[in-house]
Amino acid sequence: MHEFSIAESILEAVRKELVSHPGARPTRVGLRIGELAAVDVDSLSFCFESVVRGTEWEGLQLDAQVCPQRRICNDCGKEFAVVEYNASCPMCAGCNTTLSSGDELDFDYLEVETGGTPAIEVKGAE
Amino acid sequence: MERLPLKSKVLSENQIVAESLRERFRSHGVLCLNLISGPGSGKTALLERTLAGFDPATRVCVLTGDIQTDNDARRLAQYGFPVRQITTGGTCHLDARMIEKHLAAWNLDEIDLLFIENVGNLVCPSSYDLGEASKIVLLSVTEGDDKPLKYPSIFFKSDLFILTKIDLLPYVPFNAEVVEANARLVHPGIEIVRTSATAEGGLDAWLAWMKQRMAQARQDALLPLRLS
Fold it and tell me: Does B95 sit within 8 Å of A5, measured CB to CB?
């Protein structure tokens, strides 16, 4: 049950991000959670609900996108979805493959209402 | 409504502390190993037997985590090496800040090997980087041989899988080949050793792995090899 600590980390990160967007009210925070991240999404959502309750952002939603495990074959270059943990390449049957996604625990976006103030500058965009 | 893209990791605060610990370990030539398993797989017993076999001049320290009690620290302190208990008071894992805090009591120049015995839990500790060189997962033969498939994250993130209590294999319906194949399905590159903390020579494969890694850590820090 480390989802509670993770929920607190999420709220802390939202707080930090909003320092550079004064007046913005957060409505939804998007996450990307890999199958291998050892995080239970239902439990995280439940914990997140309880950590935002009673704060000025009560009702802030969590949108967790689960990222399936994908690997890349180092021999033939094929990228493939891993089915039932089978890490070998479906193209060349080689076992020399590397994880390309599926262990992330990353932020994706923060949705905010700016309440009619001038459009805020998007920070961190690439 | 605006959507701001965020690029950071959720546990970036932990990650920052972990990276700073990793750099300190690297520059001081300290090999830090983070031992993770469910409760009762034999982390403390493995450490006890490992410490008991060390020359008294070995510069090894242990941080041991539990939710409550300092029983493990007392068990491990009998061997004469510095041990500190981290009592989390309910938290199911150790995080990098706890390691940083408890490490402050020691001088890294006087340490070659640091064991971190994580809280007994096969799930949560896998999400927290402690700055270790390697995570090591332990599983005993009295558990199920399908555990790597049920708890893939920790097997995926560990460099070494220690199968413990193999002296009990004749008495339990556990297939060592199956558990090893399952671990390799989840993590093709994982190294595997089989151990027994009660049989003569039962830790040889583990000790060989550890000594090789210690030598590598000294070499990486450009420090002379210390043979003990």
Answer: yes
